[in-house]
Amino acid sequence: MDKFDQGILDALREDARQPVAAIAERVNLSRSAVADRIRKLEDHGVIRGYQVLLREPGAGEVCAYLELCYNDIQCKDMARILRTIPEVKLCHGISGETDMLLYVRADSMARIHAIRDRIGAVPGVARIKTHVVMAEYINAFADS
Q: CA 107 to CA 123: how far, in whole Å?
């Protein structure tokens, strides 16, 4: 392995999906030379594969449950409004004094607040109670 191979590996570590042309420009080789070197690195087992790394819940992400209580609006109408908010991942009509329970996943706490404000502005929404997820211990949905 020489400095070119090392440069190629460094580039692939940063972004394995970047075009060969971008790597070639970075290491000052032709595209075909870089493609050949990548293939040889794969053939010799230096590069063993490529993978997708998923962000773990809580790593730059905020999850919360929102309890909604409302009057003068039908559940189906509220659900229609909630479908327009992409961060709302689950919406259940439930029994008891709470009308709906939502599971929301957003990029920041500020976004959770914005979602709360948007839902709170819906005529008939009487109360929203927020439960921020601090830790996840069991998630059978993630395994299915």
A: 26
Q: Give the integer Cα–Cα distance in Å for 2 and 4.
A: 5
Reported CATH class of domain 3-43: mainly alpha
Residues of the chain with CATH 1.10.10.10: 3-43
What's the whole-number mean pLDDT along residues 8-27? 90
Residues paired with residue 66 on neighbouring β-strands, in sequence order: 102, 130
- Cα torsion for 47, 41, 15, 143, to the nearest 10°? -20
Alpha carbon separation from 132 to 18, 48, 59, 105 (Å, rounded) = 36, 40, 14, 10
Structure tokens at 137: 């211990």
pLDDT of residue 131: 95
Domain with CATH 3.30.70.920 in the chain: 62-143
pLDDT, mean over the chain: 89
